[in-house]
């Protein structure tokens, strides 16, 4: 008789916990998100895979203003671990490499291969990544357009049926946060060992993130590379 009683009690506790969680207001969820981001940038973060392998050494973030960022020729000093904070969106960005080639010209559209690691800041764990062997034959391909200073993008599902982002979240919309770097980086292909394609790191609040982040109110850290597809 004790086992059913214990089981029922556990179910009631789970249900109570779920109802409390579901009862959070949007304002409370946003406040939790802000606190999670504040804690993330102040810690010396090392992002690790499930097996303990180091994926990215984020470090303790040193935020700089947009004004300082522009005065530095739109660069972030890696030796100081600088990230520019875009105050309107709450996005933090570090440019690791501006890349090879040229910026995407106004009025032009390009197909771009993206490799990434997505770290759920609230969950304190890697949520998705396509920089591993499994995804090499089917990378995430984005169609990015420069609408005369305003960028838009969609995941291409025609070439390979869609990459990790589309298959995980079921949306062809590129997260708004991912579009921010295109004002500052170059899009090209690596032709020799000395060159490096564009690489950025982002801290993206839910309002600028993918569909799951938007719906469940959580921020993500990303490390991304961008490479232009061959014509």
Describe this structure in words.
This protein is α+β, with helices and mostly antiparallel strands. The chain has one domain: Chitinase A, domain 3, CATH 3.10.50. The chain contains six helices and eleven strands. It has helices at 2-22, 26-42, 66-71, 164-169, 176-179, 211-216; strands spanning 45-48, 54-59, 62-64, 82-86, 91-97, 109-120, 125-129, 140-147, 150-155, 198-204, 220-228. The strands form two sheets. Strands 3, 4, 5, 6, 7, 8, 9, 10 and 11 form a nine-stranded mixed beta sheet that branches. A two-stranded antiparallel ribbon has the order 1-2. The longest helix is centred in the first third of the chain and has 21 residues, at 2-22. The N and C termini lie far apart (71 Å). Residues 1-20 have low confidence and may be disordered.
Question: Top keywords for this entry?
Answer:
disordered N terminus, 231 residues, nine-stranded mixed sheet, 6 helices, single chain
Shape: globular
Question: What percent of residues adopt helix (DSSP H or I)?
Answer: 25-40%
CATH topology type:
Chitinase A, domain 3
Based on CA atoms alone, the radius of gyration comes out at: 20 Å
How many strand units? 11
CATH class: Alpha Beta
Order of secondary-structure elements: HHEEEHEEEEEEHHEHE
Largest sheet: 9 strands, mixed
CATH architecture: Roll
List the helices and strands and how they pair.
Layout: H1 2-22, H2 26-42, E1 45-48, E2 54-59, E3 62-64, H3 66-71, E4 82-86, E5 91-97, E6 109-120, E7 125-129, E8 140-147, E9 150-155, H4 164-169, H5 176-179, E10 198-204, H6 211-216, E11 220-228
Parallel strand pairs: 3-4
Antiparallel strand pairs: 1-2, 4-5, 5-10, 6-7, 6-8, 6-11, 8-9, 10-11
